[in-house]
């Protein structure tokens, strides 16, 4: 499907074409490796979730790009794609019938609204974490020194015990549902820095979506779509290849100088499990939570420029937001969190759920009675990682097991965090380590 480049520094495989794998593949290609990007699905992009709503290409997964996403922005710039347009961080809550908006462009009002959401102790705790994040960039990602220390003190109980009830319900819950698809009693204080950092950024979107970057990527490396990796080939204590099944055919062995597994933890667990069962079991501990995204195009805007998203507590729909700053006639309904783990995806149920949320938007935001023009439903069984208690200790264990297996590197959402920037950084780091191993081994 693509032009194959003659890499002189060795032949490597990157498994998984989400942002973790794309970043690893591009970094390895730039350092002169011949790269094969192996993807089980028939399209590139993983949880970017590229799809079509009527005639237009859309993204059903990750699409908001923070101003501080420097690694991801460097990745798209390298591919000649940099049509970013402002989106902001905009999320409203309803408290005592009043709409409270958190907006990255209106920081003063946002701070006032946060103060109205919790006790003095909770606001002070939140402020202390925010100060650490501002002071030291590593606190935006999993495994930082500050949050590791915090995890050792507080991860025996979930996040819902760390903050008081009001702060948990008003601010913490929408944040962890949005970023992890989890409830505050399903995640831990030691990983909360990744959530708070998301609130402290300002967001853009790629005007033309991620597809132009995926197309550019497919010209840079060899892409194998519809190819599922089933296991590692280990010879002489080193990873020397993969067993793969292409389009359901019997598994065959492919040889490589090195491999990056840029797959979610549960998928990585399956690939490494037969050769390294204890590593496989440990990776399988990482929890993932589901989500369903319903995109609806209307015949008129449903939101205003000032209020572009509403987080909700009491329904299966956790968040309704406009697709873009100017595309307020397309609404993205996200069903996540305990009440939003949908099992009935029938058109009748989706229609009923959408009607119910439209009513909420009309009641609280004065949204119009608009006609639906097109609807798209995307369900993710494992949409977001929710990490583990004492996650930094888990990461150290995994790192130890992987460093005993030369030729293998791991990337993915459970290593630095679920946001696109964290995944991108995990891919870059894995690629750098693999490049140095391949150089030494040749
Ligand atoms: C609905 C939703 C909205 C989000 N919104 C945002 C947002 O606005 N901003 C943000 O920063 N983040 C957002 N995120 C998070 C972010 O999009 C994801 O965490 C990130 O895209 C994950 O990338 P990844 O490469 O680690 O994993 P994936 O994108 O899941 O890629 C892994 C790939 O590996 C493939 N694979 C798995 N097993 C195998 C195998 N055995 N063989 C071959 N291939 C295999 C899969 O098919 C998949 O394509 C969102 C996530 C979701 C689900």
UniProtKB/TrEMBL annotation:
Residues 19-434 form the Amine oxidase domain. InterPro entries: Amino_oxidase (IPR002937), FAD/NAD-bd_sf (IPR036188), Zeta_carotene_desat/Oxidored (IPR050464). One of its GO terms (molecular function) is oxidoreductase activity. It comes from the Bacteria. Signal peptide: none annotated. SUPFAM superfamilies: FAD/NAD(P)-binding domain (SSF51905). Coiled coil: none annotated. PANTHER family: AMINE OXIDASE DOMAIN-CONTAINING PROTEIN, PROTOPORPHYRINOGEN OXIDASE. This is FAD-dependent oxidoreductase. It comes from Streptomyces palmae.
């Amino acid at each position: 499907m693509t032009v194959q480049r003659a890499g002189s520094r060795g032949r490597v495989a990157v498994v998984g074409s989400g942002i973790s794998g794309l970043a690893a593949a591009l970094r390895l290609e730039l350092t002169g490796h011949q790269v094969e990007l192996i993807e089980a699905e028939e399209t590139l992009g993983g949880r970017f979730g590229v799809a079509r709503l009527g005639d237009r290409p859309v993204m059903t997964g990750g699409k908001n790009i923070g101003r501080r996403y420097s690694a991801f922005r460097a990745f798209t710039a390298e591919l000649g794609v940099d049509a970013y347009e402002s989106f902001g961080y905009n999320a409203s809550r309803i408290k005592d019938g009043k709409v409270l908006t958190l907006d990255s462009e209106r920081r003063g009002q946002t701070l006032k609204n946060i103060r109205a959401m919790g006790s003095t102790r909770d606001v002070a705790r939140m402020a202390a974490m925010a100060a650490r994040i501002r002071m030291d960039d590593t606190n935006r990602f999993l495994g930082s020194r500050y949050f590791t220390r915090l995890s050792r003190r507080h991860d025996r109980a979930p996040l819902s015990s760390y903050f008081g009830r009001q702060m948990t319900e008003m601010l913490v819950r929408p944040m962890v549902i949005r970023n992890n698809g989890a409830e505050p009693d399903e995640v831990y204080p030691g990983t909360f820095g990744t959530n708070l950092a998301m609130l402290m950024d300002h967001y853009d979107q790629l005007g033309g979506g991620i597809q132009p970057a995926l197309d550019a990527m497919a010209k840079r490396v060899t892409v194998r779509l519809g190819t599922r990796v089933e296991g590692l080939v280990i010879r002489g204590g080193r990873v020397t290849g993969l067993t793969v099944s292409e389009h359901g055919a019997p598994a065959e062995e492919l040889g490589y100088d090195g491999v990056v597994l840029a797959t979610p933890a549960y998928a990585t667990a399956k690939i490494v499990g037969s050769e390294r069962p204890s590593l496989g079991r440990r990776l399988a501990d990482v929890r993932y939570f589901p989500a369903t995204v319903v995109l609806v195009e209307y015949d008129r805007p449903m939101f205003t420029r000032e209020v572009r998203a509403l987080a909700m507590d009491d329904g299966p729909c956790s968040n309704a937001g406009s697709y873009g700053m100017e595309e307020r006639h397309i609404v993205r309904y996200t069903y996540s969190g305990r009440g939003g783990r949908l099992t009935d995806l029938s058109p009748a149920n989706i229609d009923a759920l959408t009607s119910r949320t439209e009513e909420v938007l009309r009641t609280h935001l004065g949204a119009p009675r608009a006609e639906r023009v097109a609807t798209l439903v995307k369900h993710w069984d494992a949409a977001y990682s929710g990490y583990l208690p004492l996650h930094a200790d888990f990461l150290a264990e995994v790192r130890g097991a992987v460093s005993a297996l030369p030729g293998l590197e791991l990337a993915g959402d459970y290593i630095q965090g679920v946001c696109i920037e964290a995944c991108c950084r995990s891919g870059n780091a894995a690629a750098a380590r693999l490049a140095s191993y391949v150089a030494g081994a040749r």
